[in-house]
Amino acid sequence: MNDFLSDCRSAIGEHYVVTDHTDMAGYLTDWRRRFTGKALAILKPGSTEEVALLVKLCNQYRVPLVPQGGNTGLVLGSVPDDSGNAVVLSLTRLNHIRATDIINNTITVEAGCILQTIQNAATDVDRLFPLSLAAEGSCTIGGNLATNAGGTAVLRYGNMRELCLGLEVVTAQGEIWSGLRGLRKDNTGFDLRDLYIGAEGTLGIITAAVLKLFPQPKARLTALAAMHTPNAALKLLSLAQSHCGATLTGFELMSDFCLQLVVKHYPQMRLPFPQSSPQYVLLEISDNESAEHAEATLERLVTDALEQEVIHDAVVASSMAQSKGLWNLREHIPLAQADEGKNIKHDVSVPISLIGEFITRTDALLAAQFPGCRLVTFGHLGDGNLHYNVSPPEGEAGDALIASQSDINRVVHDSVDHFGGSISAEHGLGAMKRDEIRRYKSDVEMRLMERIKTALDPLNLMNPGKVV
Known about the structure:
alpha+beta, 17 helices
């Protein structure tokens, strides 16, 4: 492989071909630090043209490549396997905002742009880019597109497929497809954009995108409501949609155990209620009319929910600081669970109307088969996406739980399938769920996916071992 690496150095510069083991380490370990792969090198191109040159070299020398952005994924989609045959193609140097069009409400960005940078760039021109994730300070837009990321505002704005109008892609053969069209209507054949979004780098490498922008809302209001059951949360969702319509931006379900973990590990945070409740909903409305209109809307919703006994308490943030405090409770759940110890994560979706039944049934199945396990259940109730995570019994280190991971996954995933859901709502399949998905997709569907992969990447060099 010396000739290959030498040609890579000639293509992008010696400094951007990293082979030192210490310097490579951060690119080879997944975000949860559960797996470390091996690679020939880390390649760091600085332009779409350099990406294309490197892909052509990988074709010439038959070297597999793993595209990588911020490496914040949770399903081993952005790290290489342990064979040491692949290279990691880091896109972090492709980090320019190419254009902003406030009349067309679009922003054109390169794949290595940090999500928070794009949010800030939109704010600078009095616009909103609504994708919001816990990892927004480190994840890249290329990774968001590759996994069709969702986040907390899907209910109003949709996931990345809805937020993207056009792409620039380097194909598996090293060709550059420039589809950076800021069009909302373009019915001229197969939608290649949607094919590459969510493909996790297995069909080609996204190098840039045209994204939708939205007007900045005049007001944002946040409330935390307490209730007894997930079904009560579903009733609140129906009320909120009736009262708030399109202004309802976020609707997050959190169990009491989730928030008790947060206040345990982050004692500076406090629940704003005198007594705990089995379930909570964090909801947000974004109003384009006025703060007064938003306040009146939210007041009517809360009053109606209390009168109908859908909820038994609620607090409405009266300042941006209070709003951020409420959101911090939600955003610290994954961190608190990690602080608590080893755990098993599930990113699932089921039809919204069945979420209460899913939680009740699956909680009971796990309690019967794995006594004492603790369930950290939270997520985007408004779009049916739950993070249904399992922690070991109180006081246990978690080794026994991890040893039973396959059995626990089977219980959860079979239950998801029973309710007509998906075992991956927004994290993707990566290597972790690549084999598992075959249990739940039909043979026809898997063959269609395999044919697309073979047609676009016949040498199987693009992120091999992931998705299909």
